[in-house]
Amino acid sequence: MNKYNVVVVGATGLVGSTLIEVLEERDFPLNQLLPLASSRSVGKEIKAFGRSYAVEELTTDAFTDNYDFAFFCAGGEISKQYAPLSVQKGIISIDNTSYFRNDDNVPLIVPEVNFEQVHSTDRLISNPNCSTIQCMPPLKVLADLYGIESINYATYQACSGAGIDGLNDLLNDTTFCFDYKIRESVLPRIDVFLDNGYSKEEAKMINETAKILKLPGVPISATCVRVPITTGHSVAVTVELKREPDIDQVRRSMSAVEGLSVVDDIKNNIYPIAESVRGKDIIEVGRLRKDLFRANVIHFWTVADNLRKGAATNAIQIAEKFIAKYPESIS
Q1: Any catalytic annotation for residue 233?
Q2: What pTM was estimated for this model as a whole?
Q3: Pick the catalytic residue: 73, 130, 135, 224?
Q4: With contact defined as beta carbons under 8 Å apart, do 116 and 140 qualify?
Q5: Ordered structural domains, the chain, with CATH
Q6: Is 130 a catalytic residue?
Q7: 283 — phi, psi (to 5°)?
Q8: Tens digits of residue pLDDT in 257-305
Q9: CB neighbour list of residue 83: distance below 8 Å, 6 or more residues apart
Q10: Which of 73, 135, 224, 233 is catalytic?
Q11: pLDDT over 70 for what percent of the chain?
């Protein structure tokens, strides 16, 4: 089996450190690992794959054609500056930030849903927003079975989605990251507000859903809310379909999807909760039900670990799929 040289940009952050852990857990065929971060983190030791790696400083000279994959986990401005340098060296660059997601020339990928949009020559691939990712597999099932007329999201997003500062605000009852103390509240703002009244996070979900599922012109709306838990995003989804759904058929079809688990035994009060997916790569879906007044509308609830399937794991799965499908195109 071939082994690959990997760069992780933002290796000491929540997503970057999780990504390295998941690489090891999934027994990724690693040859060399280069953890990069800001000058503040230079010299820190990262233990993985049975050895220690010293964090090096992210510079324009860090990317060489010796590397096969680069994972960017350090914010949009960092990706804007450094991802093109990685691509120029022929490195398959997978970006966890939002910077390239709306670029028509950059595939936006959830591997179980639309990996066919990746070509062997692609060297820049974008990872979707955490809450978007967990909604795509169940929505793809509905799109294939019945067609989609509209989508409405309400998210319940954990504090770790805001990074270390957001997590610290929850744990320490501070307001360094959030507008208000979050320990006893929920905050209906994630990212900045836009002129149209939506937040940037809501715009991400709207635009990314349309791109991934190829739904141009389909009405999509979202309300994104930060909630006082550490890890695990939840999303309530309402979907208007072109045809009346059969709930049993929906359950069977969703159960057959890789990485998607239907947890929907309401007689025994069993349904998806964030705690049940922490530290796991599965997406759970439940509370599947038809609308009381509109026969072609369905509601469901989905949960996933936002640091893993919502970020690190999805990025690694993109790399794994690339290796499986295009091994000869990796330098």
Answers
A1: yes
A2: 0.96
A3: 130
A4: no
A5: 4-128+311-329 (3.40.50.720), 131-306 (3.30.360.10)
A6: yes
A7: -105, 130
A8: 999 999 999 999 999 999 999 999 999 999 999 999 999 999 999 999 9
A9: 70, 72, 93, 95, 99, 100, 124
A10: 233
A11: 100
